Amino acid sequence: MQKSTKLVILAALTAFSIFVAGCGGSEKKADSKADTNAPIKIGVTAGPHAEIIDNVVKLAAKENLKVQAVEFSDFVTPNVALNDKQLFANSMQHLPYLKATLAKNPKFELVNCFNTVTFPMAIYSNKIKKLEDIKEGMTVAIPNDPSNGGRALLVLADKGIISVKDKNDIKTSVADITSNAKKLKIRELDAAAIPKALNDVDFAVINANYAMVAKLDPSKDAISVERADNPYVCIFVTTKANEKDPRIAQLKKIYQSAENKKFIQEHFKGSILAGF
Length: 276
Prior knowledge:
Blueprint: E1 6-9, H1 11-22, E2 40-45, H2 48-61, E3 67-72, H3 76-83, E4 89-94, H4 95-104, E5 110-115, E6 117-118, E7 122-124, E8 139-143, H5 146-158, E9 163-164, E10 177-179, E11 185-189, E12 203-206, H6 208-213, E13 224-225, E14 234-239, H7 246-255, H8 258-268, E15 273-274
Helix pairs in contact: 1-3, 2-8
């Protein structure tokens, strides 16, 4: 990450350190009287979220606010690390994903602060050129986490590839498929791994951030793109303890500033949109 401090934390290593601390390890707990001049640690996933926070780091520096980006390789660990007070906030998920996380982890005290950007999901393939080329028995890859997996199924349903019980239900799972006329084989994979699996499947539904890391442009390379009016706008998340911290309001002002919006528009050229 350019001109910012970057900590690349592998998911397994981070999870292990959290486990040790939770089991009475020697890791120190967050000090309630922590130095307010210390950098604010914001968790992000690799790709666009990290690139946007890079710009936020630069804008924040102009206001004498120190921000440090902590980059993760998955969607799960940033929320665990945030709840464990290893982070001040994170910027890497949409509201349905946060709700699903809280439902699975009722002791987590995480809250939505403000909207950030919208990443349209899209369908990609190395084997077919258009939706009409989908044939009986083909294999489609979708994310294996509940929120993004459900979102992918809704994309497929919206395009008429499958049918589900409720095309507006973000909790949709494979069990909710009511019609699979082409008898597609649905392969559930880690979201970050799907771009690398494109040669092993016939087509796949891929999150925009991972598609871009793999140099897939949804505006050029996708067979079909998720409709714009979807509920998956991304959000900035912190803990209930930090919710009223004045630095949250400052970060919102910076993130949703005209300068940052211009960066998003120019840097991603419409593949990712400001959600504010």
